[in-house]
Amino acid sequence: MELQLRSATWEDYDAVNRIIREGQEEHADALPDRFARLDHVVAMGWYRSFSDQPHKEIIVAEVAGELVGVAMLEMKKSPTYEALVPRSYAYLNELAVSSSYQRQGIGRKLYEASVLWAKEREAVSLELNVWEFNEKALRFYASVGMSTLNRTLTVNLI
């Protein structure tokens, strides 16, 4: 399998949505009160913002001309509260691999490319959110050295 990583183009929009929709469906199955079922999970305006700005990037993974994975990154700054140290960090909005290509090292390659992208922009860290039900993602991120920084807690009121 020859894997190629590259920056996404406009022509990749539908394929990127197809890949991210697979993960969205898993989330909707696990948490239907939180996640909707959508044909286009990535809105065109949001997708466009990643190609229009130097502090955002979409990296896609291709095998034999087929898009099989995607990482969507952006640089962020910490909130300007006196109690927080000012810092710039990279945020990984999406990391997804088509189900038929998972467990072949593609997610790891996308993650490594994301780390490199962040370092090139002098980010002090790479951060992301993952839902507690998503044990597969939790194991993957632990395997690449990520750890839990904080947690969001909730209580249902209705």
Automatic annotation (TrEMBL):
<dbReference type="InterPro" id="IPR016181">
    <property type="entry name" value="Acyl_CoA_acyltransferase"/>
</dbReference>
<feature type="domain" description="N-acetyltransferase">
    <location>
        <begin position="3"/>
        <end position="158"/>
    </location>
</feature>
<keyword id="KW-0808">Transferase</keyword>
<protein>
    <recommendedName>
        <fullName>N-acetyltransferase domain-containing protein</fullName>
    </recommendedName>
</protein>
<dbReference type="Pfam" id="PF00583">
    <property type="entry name" value="Acetyltransf_1"/>
</dbReference>
<keyword id="KW-0012">Acyltransferase</keyword>
<dbReference type="InterPro" id="IPR000182">
    <property type="entry name" value="GNAT_dom"/>
</dbReference>
<dbReference type="InterPro" id="IPR050832">
    <property type="entry name" value="Bact_Acetyltransf"/>
</dbReference>
<dbReference type="GO" id="GO:0016747">
    <property type="term" value="F:acyltransferase activity, transferring groups other than amino-acyl groups"/>
</dbReference>
